[in-house]
Amino acid sequence: PILHLNLLASNLQRTSQIIFDKMNVEKKTLIPLKDLIPTIKNRNFDILLTAGAGDIGAEVPKLVEQLRK
Q1: Beta strands in 1-69 (DSSP E)
Q2: Could you tell me which of 9, 16, 65, 68 has the fewest CB atoms within 10 Å of its CB?
């Protein structure tokens, strides 16, 4: 897919769900934070857009490191 939105559910599960429900994107997935890296590594995408509530910014370095492998 050209665009598949992955919304990461952090400890603020309720807030993440609210954001997810309001996103007007045809293909989207709500991914629990603990499943982030395995889920992303097993997907084929041209563009990866992540959004989330809470501490998602802290996960970016780990995600980048895994995607470069």
Answers
A1: 4-9, 28-32, 48-52
A2: 68
Would you say 58 and 30 are in contact if contact means Cβ atoms under 8 Å apart? Answer: no
CA distances from 39 to 7, 22, 43 (A): 12, 22, 7
Going by C-alpha positions, the residue among 48, 53, 57, 61 that lies closest to residue 32 is: 53
Q: CA nearest 1: which of 66, 52, 49?
A: 49
Q: Is the pTM of this model over 0.85?
A: no
Q: What is the pLDDT of residues 32-54, one digit of tens each?
A: 878 888 888 888 878 777 777 66
